[in-house]
Amino acid sequence: MKIVIANASHFKYAQTICDTIADSAQVRGTGIAKRTPEYIKKKLENGNAVIALEGDTFAGFCYIEVWGHEKFVANSGLIVHPDFRNQGLAKKIKKAIFELSITKFPNAKIFGITTGLAVMKINYDLGYKPVTFSELTDDPDFWKGCQTCKNFDVLTRTDQKMCLCTGMLYDPESATKKDKIVNGKAFKRLKSIKESLFLKKKSK
Predict the structure, then answer these.
(1) 112 and 149 in contact (C-beta within 8 Å)?
(2) How far apart, in whole angstroms, are the C-alpha atoms of residue 19 and residue 53?
(3) Residue 51's beta-bridge partner residues?
(4) How far, in Å, CA of 97 to CA of 123, rounded?
(5) How many CB atoms lie within 10 A of CB 78?
(6) CA 93, chain centre distance (Å)
(7) CA proximity to 16, closest of 69, 65, 83
(8) For the chain, does the N or the C end have fewer beta carbons within 10 angstroms?
(9) Is the Cβ–Cβ distance between 126 and 110 less than 8 Å?
(10) What is the pLDDT of residues 9-48, one digit of tens each?
């Protein structure tokens, strides 16, 4: 298994990446913003993505989005193909895209929004902390990307203040070991709240 910085030579995987993301969202029954092959190809072409391959077989993917004139970057579209799950690959991919983000955009705050508890735990281990949406980018194009998510109505009803997704942020200027200890307690509270929300949503 190898995880590499993606480039134009990986265009042939664009449709597979989109299909895998869409299939995963459907199986989990969670909201997710849809991606197009053309959009994925742009990320591949400009080197703002990592891809995991087993030989020539697609195994996983994640890409970088840049917002607010490089003040913020987001690590988005994290996906592992079903054939390669439960092997710790998601954590390796997330670490790779995190390191690429820091290398290419050293002064940017790195953030993400997710409904997945596993992704939240990975983010926490990397030094992210849970934050309100007000601490994330206010770039309208970022929030437009949520329009294809089935939970978009929740976001609009709350004036983009909250949704079923959780915002997490890594600030290179303030990230310390102390932050990780404090955020560990916040993550446990957050996990309990998220589980409760999903149970209520599922029972409807």
Answers:
(1) no
(2) 16
(3) 4, 61
(4) 11
(5) 22
(6) 11
(7) 83
(8) C
(9) no
(10) 999 999 999 999 888 877 765 556 678 999 999 999 999 9
